[in-house]
Amino acid sequence: MNARAEPLRQPARVIRSDVEAIAVAEAYADRIRPSASERDRNRTRPWAEIAELRATGLLGITVPRAFGGPEVSIHTLVEVFRILSAADPAIGQIPQNHFSHLENIRALGRPEQKAFFYGGILAGQLWGNALSERGTPKGGYANMKTRIERGPDGGYILNGTKYYTTGALFAQWLPVAALDGDGRAHMVMVEREAPGVEIVDDWNAMGQRGTASGTATFGGVVVGERDVVPIWQYDSGPSTRPAFGQIMHVAVDIGIAQEALADTVAYVRERSRPWYGAELERAGDDPHIIRRVGELHVETEAAWSLLLRAADTFDRVRAAPRDDKATVDLAILVAAAKAAASAVCVKMGNDLFALAGTSAADETWNLHRHWRNARTHTLHDPEVWKYHYIGDFILNGRIPPRQALLV
């Protein structure tokens, strides 16, 4: 299957401020929330919803002001991700790689690359992702099989196969991680319609079903000089780049947890029956349910507060001259937020049923989507390793390896 996104029927909105970005996100979330459960139940790909997302202008909110964008704060960016992910976490996750790759353009792009690609983003383009590969002994760029080599007429020829290509099915451009003949990593920008590109919609996971994170193959794709970003040029010192990729994932988890908690509260209020031995008229008066809802609310709020603290710290670190210590401290703080968010969103999806009761397990309500989405999204970035790196840093002063925190 090589389905393609429809072109926008009208120019994308250009958002001008942080306040506007939040308002647009909330309005869009309100429109996609009512149909989110049915999309999940039926494994429906969100073609229309992604087309609308492109038109909202939200995909351009990190474009620098010098290139016509609003250049919103990291605080605003993660709030947008949280808002979208509460409404539909599949749609919330899809733009993560879009913004992550835009950060590569910001950091390493040449002026002509920035002008070209930022212009496309402000016009409503979505970038997908083609980083990970199956069949390699372990992750990381050094183990990739995808290659670029010099073409006979200049430029490059790209060959390889990727999986977990979140967003690629709906995208206009695909950032592809590839190695050159010297083993150096590049981000290769490939048009979705380029000859030799095939997207296979074979994503069949139990959760995050709408992300369409399946297979992309690149067979002899011709790529020009403009479309290659040498990500090997990131220096070996501490960098905010890993924290940037990770902090948006934290917001997805928080959104899942908040929506699961809201659905739990609504179900207990409206449908749950009290346990017959409790001698109560309402499930909402059960002291055990009351306590557990309170605990889960506190844990969710604590994770959200960690996320916002990390985002505000990120904004300060980015605005200041380079400071390696501050960058490492930021990485540890984002890792802490990720560990907290991962734990509570999985826990919330599980405890929903203990609180809401047997009837909540009926397929009619599809409430298990919260646990399925949480469990699927958190698998690629295990919280146990976050605790390990945080503890090793606090106890022994060891700085985590950069790739370990790049997700």
Describe this structure in words.
The chain has about 400 residues and is α+β, with helices and mostly antiparallel strands. The chain has 3 domains: about 20-120, Acyl-CoA dehydrogenase/oxidase, N-terminal domain (Butyryl-Coa Dehydrogenase, subunit A, domain 1, Orthogonal Bundle); about 140-235, Butyryl-CoA Dehydrogenase, subunit A, domain 2 (Beta Barrel); about 240-405, Butyryl-CoA Dehydrogenase, subunit A, domain 3. It is about 50% helix and about 10% strand. It contains 12 helices and 7 strands. The chain has helices at about 20-30, 35-40, 45-55, 75-85, 90-95, 95-110, 110-120, 240-270, 285-320, 325-355, 370-380, 385-395; strands at about 145-150, 155-160, 175-180, 185-190, 195-200, 215-225, 230. α6 (about 95-110) runs antiparallel to α8 (about 240-270). The radius of gyration is 22 Å and the shape is globular.
Record keyword descriptors for this entry.
three-stranded antiparallel β-sheet; Butyryl-CoA Dehydrogenase, subunit A, domain 2; Butyryl-CoA Dehydrogenase, subunit A, domain 3; 10% strand; 3 domains; Butyryl-Coa Dehydrogenase, subunit A, domain 1; 407 residues; 12 helices
